[in-house]
Amino acid sequence: MPGIPVPDRNGWKQRLGRVLVTGLCLAALGLPQAARAAAPVSPDHPVEQAAMTAMAAAVCAGSYHPENSREIRYLEDYGWTMTPYTLKDGDTEVNFTLARKQGLLRGKNWTVLAFRGSATRDDWKLNMKMKAVPYPEGSNARKNQDGEEKGPAVHEGFLRYARAALSRPLDVDGDGREETLAAYLKEHPQEKMVLTGHSLGGAGATLAGEELVRQGVDKNRIPVITFGAPAVGNRDFARRYGSKIDLLRVVTTLDPVAGALQTVTRSGYQQFGEKKEYALSGKYTDYQHPISYYLDLAVQDYYRQRDQAEKDGLWAPVPLERRKGEGPLAALAVLCLDNGADTRFSPDLGQFLLDEYRGALPRYVVLDYRHTAGSDLPAFQEELRQKARKAGADVLVIAQVERQRLGQTDKWSILLGQEVVGLQPGGVHSVTAGSTRVRFEQGVVQSLLSLWEDQKKELKKALPETRDQEPLWIFLREEGTWDENH
């Protein structure tokens, strides 16, 4: 049997470097906590909120380049239908993506509508229409001695953006009928739609929520999640209308956009809604607004919330093996090296991969999950081989993910290698690897998504029985049991 190139770190790199980079993402916990945990009963539970927030961040990230987005391809691979739209209403152009998964989740059909952030000159023209206009039209508004609007008023450009999106009939569920969102939601009580957006898109999502509620849609059916969004209205608007929508407003510590209008105008803009702040050091990045950071932090927060729920006995873990079913039994080892990288603001990549493999392998036994902040792993390839045989496995799958510094700079890349070894004479043997650079427009999660896409294809070639069960972070699954006594 060919040796497993795990113990010799340099040999592993050299071997992978000779392999054609052809290619195997998200969500997981460490080895002691299994990933297929039960979906919570309460919609307000921190784990459920974190899962919904991570999903929203992924669709927001994909909305910037929906025609060639790793996030869109990833979600489509798990059965989500992703439909991008570009709508024009006069000189206002709106871009958003509808993400929909067929099948009921807790008695509801779920759709995610993600408004794209600023990406074009026209988007910035809308941003610059900062005049606060009365809301709704015809209401009395006046200025005080400081020039601040009195009476509810909202950002003119953001209101145009939201109304342009809501004015166009859409085929939300693929039945061939086009309806406005308000009409569709009122006629389909089993539907629930998450409105989300980053930056300008978050402002559009907020006012779209307000408009839909004004048109008779129950706010509990259209939760709003925004990332780095500016304020949309003045103090009187926040006071009168802020509680009319279910808004979760996600920001980073030093994102300048959330407070921009309060600083540059005299219209009295004010934020509202539930605020969730992700701690992000200015030493890690001096520009904290890109959606890539929000995606990394949202997925990391999901892990933390679920980990805490498991520790508290609120989240039911699953076994570290699944032997029932058809297909070969795979023994799995996931190895992670950080090489001294700053990992405080991104998910644990080893945990990340562990869930992906457990969702892909038809039957599995997790042999090992090793994580080190350093650069070396101990030699234990023979130990893995013996454990795999003892477990009765047909194949051994080893995944190694590593952060690598680029020269002497503070820039990093991520390497993902995979080896599939048949444990019977003449069994399959496949080695693949790839690497990509992490940058502000492609964060840690996005980088790993790109690499996993290729490696998963190779895994399917080696093990045709590979399945596509989505990891829990994507959305709210209804598996297992939830301890309602807590």
| The level-1 CATH class of the largest domain | Alpha Beta
As residue ranges, the low-confidence spans are 1-43, 478-486
Q: Termini, distance in Å? A: 50 Å
Mean pLDDT: 84
User: What percent strand?
Assistant: 15-25%
SS field, number of helical segments: 13
Would you identify the CATH H-level superfamily of the largest domain? Alpha/Beta hydrolase fold, catalytic domain
Architecture of the largest domain, according to CATH?
3-Layer(aba) Sandwich
- Based on CA inertia axes, which overall geometry fits? elongated
Indicate the percent of residues in helices: 25-40%
Strand tally, please?
19
Gyration radius (Cα, Å) is 24 Å
Assembly of the depicted chains: single chain
Decide which structural class fits the backbone: alpha/beta
Biggest β-sheet description? 7 strands, mixed
The figure for the number of domains is: 2
Order of strands across the widest beta sheet?
Answer: 1-2-3-8-9-11-13
CATH topology of the largest domain: Rossmann fold
